[in-house]
Write a structure and sequence with these properties.
The complex is a heterodimer of chains A (about 425) and B (about 270). Chain A has about 425 residues and is an alpha+beta fold. Chain A contains eleven helices and nine strands. In chain A, a hairpin with a 2-residue loop joins strand 7 (about 175) and strand 8 (about 180). Chain B has about 270 residues and is of the alpha/beta class. Chain B contains ten helices and ten strands. Classes of the chains: A alpha+beta (about 425), B alpha/beta (about 270). The structure holds adenosine-5'-triphosphate and magnesium ion. Adenosine-5'-triphosphate (ATP) binds near residues 23 and 44 of chain B.
Chain lengths: ~425, ~270
């Protein structure tokens, strides 16, 4: 239900901001590209709209904040929260011989994070006595109303009405205090209004995630600071990728240049390529344990095939005219290798490196989820066991941000080192 | 006097399905130093194959190529090649491309610098020395290819449709440039083209080839290349005999193409 509501809000913001931006921003800016008359299907004419990107990110945080009751989002934007505070309701007890008596149940609902403290009330008179119940927000509680009553359920007493509404427990009844039903044994099950906000153990508000990030980067979690955890993961990725490239690129070159090498390694490469690195984790743990060696070997294997295939494609993709031209300009085989085939393969190798880095980053997190004593994946795995959703969320966000940053760095390096890519 | 002799060249491609293509049959030709030969012929008549054999990229099934008294066995710096497109090195700038040959021979900049810069000026690339290849227009790229070939100082220059990808105006300018460089350097040139006009304007000698099997159909000796050096090529086209030669060759190639079409229609 809440999921659908969030989706509806999201779609609404999408369209509203689109219309607003169309009418406000487009009116005031007139750049050259907007003068194009034919843009449909012209891929180069579709660049990403910065305003849309910003609104998109803000929207996510806004929805996140408003459905978690974040302090960062002004109160009027909050989704209705769960009931917190004091409330009460009356129940009507009927004994076996038909006598009825009312009693009031005083309920104190404590906010998320507070401990529900028991309290006492004056029991009043009659056969049914008043009760005091303490509970947490957004939960339901079972009220054993007859603990202090003169006639118990075991004596045949039962609840017949709540707040004056006749009620036999076969269906839920609602009153301003909340909703009620009866358990199989006749106890009252009571839930105050839940509102539309998420409980922190499902989705903590953004500020909780940030303060947790600050706390962990200062004090650490599981013997290592946040930076150490992320550093471990990055270190594994870089080392694994480095060795993968170190062996994979020469292997790819050899496969591109020699039929013996190609014949020898093709079955191995073609077999290993479709095996997802994650499927190797169990074997790597059996062989190398959960230490660094195993993880680096896993990442090495994840990047090796990608780099070998990229280098092979780079070599075989050389335009034969270039090789012919170099030959008739008097270049030797070695010179053609050094000055034509190697530089010509760089764009392919860069594409491979970008893919390999992405795969390695995903694989290291997954490997740490399974077994590790530090690392980003281990951090969120352990946190999830203790239902520390804020750490889990923080970990996921940081993993995404770092993966994104790696990709941007790789594409910047690509533009710098192989500027001719895709332009020949 | 060094000559290029093409002696009884035949080329047969065996196809994987067991059949074969006779791309060239018994082609013989003698070329003197400094001659410019243009080659015309319908598509698939073996022009590129012939050029690749002369360049040394392909070994003929029969016959041999003799240049300066020795048999051609593979590619060599004495035979330069200008491709239609895509043969420049994108990872080098214009000057590095043009100086590629000398650099591969181990020469240092003191040895090749002046020559390369001169060629860049002659081809009108003086201001684009440090530009990347992908920043140049198609015409400029072909001028780089031409300069790169000349910088290596080959005895024979082989060109396979070097101007084929250019627009008409650029093409005309480049034709003038080819003629100018030919006269200045005195190189032996074989130029393959699909344009009858280009073949007549540039070819001191003109070879028309016929297909299936690829062979020499007719040879012409033409005066227009000499007239065209340093002159307006459009005026050369008004010269006596030009129009007749063009019509004659066009008709010849038209007939061959028609025959090919007819034959492939029959087999259907
Ligand atoms: N590597 C090869 N394998 C098999 N057949 C080939 C090969 N190269 C060329 N041929 C065949 O040889 C014949 C001559 O080809 P070639 O490329 O020399 O023709 P061309 O005259 O250059 O044609 P175009 O004007 O279209 O460039 C064609 O029938 C072609 O199919
Ligand atoms: Mg050809």
């Amino acid at each position: 239900m809440i999921g659908l509501l969030i989706l509806a809000v999201y779609v609404a913001i999408f369209f509203v901001s689109f219309l607003v931006v169309r009418f406000l921003v487009r009116r005031t800016t007139q750049d050259y590209t907007s003068l194009k008359t034919v843009t449909f299907g012209d891929e180069s004419a579709v660049t990403s709209n910065r305003v849309a990107s910003i609104v998109s990110v803000v929207t996510i945080f806004l929805i996140w904040g408003s459905f978690t009751g974040s302090n960062w989002v002004p109160g009027f934007l909050h989704a209705p929260g769960p009931f917190v505070g004091e409330t009460s309701f009356t129940y009507t007890l009927e004994t076996e011989d038909g006598t009825r008596d009312d009693a009031t149940v005083h309920v104190r609902v404590f906010d998320f994070g507070e401990t529900a403290q028991k309290f006492d009330v004056d029991e009043g008179d009659g056969i049914a006595k008043d009760d005091a119940v303490a509970m947490s927000a957004s939960r339901s509680t079972t009220i054993l109303f007859d603990k202090n009553d003169e006639v118990k359920r075991s004596d045949g007493a039962r609840v017949v009405a709540i707040d004056g509404v006749e009620f036999n427990g076969s269906r839920r009844v609602k009153s301003p205090a909340g909703s009620f039903s009866l358990t199989d044994k006749g106890a009252i099950s009571f839930a105050p209004p839940r509102g539309l906000q998420m409980e922190p153990i499902w989705l903590p508000p953004p500020e909780a995630v940030v303060s947790r990030a600050v706390e962990i980067s200062n004090e650490g979690y599981r013997d290592s600071t946040l930076w150490k955890h992320l550093g471990y993961s990055l270190f594994r990725v870089i080392l694994g990728f480095f060795f993968g490239a170190l062996l994979g690129i020469p292997l790819g070159y050899a496969m591109g240049l020699s039929d013996w090498f190609r014949g020898w390694f093709e079955p191995i490469v073609e077999f290993m390529r479709p095996v997802p690195p994650l499927a190797l984790i169990p074997l790597v743990i059996i062989w190398f344990g959960i230490g660094e060696t195993g993880k680096i070997i896993l990442l090495f294997l994840a990047s090796l095939w990608i780099m070998a295939i990229a280098a092979r494609a780079g070599v075989s993709g050389v335009n034969i005219s270039k090789v012919h031209a170099a030959y008739s300009l008097g270049a030797s085989k070695f010179q053609i290798m050094r000055y034509v085939i190697m530089p010509n393969s760089l764009p392919e190798i860069f594409t491979g490196a970008r893919v390999a880095m992405g795969v390695c980053w995903g694989t290291v997190v997954a490997a740490e989820l399974v077994a590790a004593s530090e690392g980003a994946g281990m951090m969120i795995m352990v946190a999830s066991k203790f239902q520390l959703t804020d750490i889990v969320l923080m970990g996921i966000i940081l993993i995404g941000v770092i993966g994104f940053a790696i990709d941007i760095l790789m594409s910047k390096a690509e533009n710098l080192l192989v500027p001719w890519k895709g332009r020949s | 006097m060094s000559t290029l002799s093409i002696e009884n060249i035949s080329m047969r491609f065996d196809l994987p399905n067991g059949t074969h293509v006779q791309a060239l049959k018994d082609v013989s030709l003698e070329l003197n130093t400094g001659e410019l030969l243009s080659v015309l012929g319908p598509s698939g008549c073996g022009k590129t194959t012939l050029l690749n054999i002369v360049a040394g990229f392909l070994a003929p099934t029969e016959g041999q190529i003799i240049l300066n008294g020795h048999t051609v066995t593979g590619p060599d710096a004495e035979r330069g090649m200008v491709f239609q497109q895509g043969a420049l090195f994108e990872w080098m700038d214009v000057r590095e491309n043009v100086s590629f040959g000398p650099r591969m021979k181990g020469q240092n900049e003191a040895q090749w610098g002046a020559h390369v810069d001169h060629l860049l000026d002659v081809t009108g690339l003086g201001d684009f020395k440090d530009k990347a290849i992908y920043e140049l227009s198609g015409g400029m790229q072909q001028r780089v290819a031409l300069a790169r070939c000349l910088a290596n100082d080959p005895d024979v220059i082989l060109m396979d449709e070097p101007l084929g990808a250019l627009d008409a105006l650029t093409r005309e300018k480049m034709q003038g440039l080819v003629l100018k460089l030919w006269k200045e350097t005195g190189k032996t040139i074989i130029l393959i083209t699909h344009s009858v006009e280009e073949a007549i304007l540039l070819g001191e000698r003109l070879l028309v080839m016929a297909p299936r099997p690829g062979r020499i159909h007719k040879e012409y000796n033409l005066p227009f290349a000499d007239m065209g050096v340093g002159a307006d090529l459009r005026e050369v086209k008004q010269a006596e005999g030009y129009a007749e030669t063009r019509e004659e060759i066009l008709e010849m190639i038209w007939d061959m193409e028609e025959e090919i079409m007819g034959r492939s229609e029959d087999t259907k």
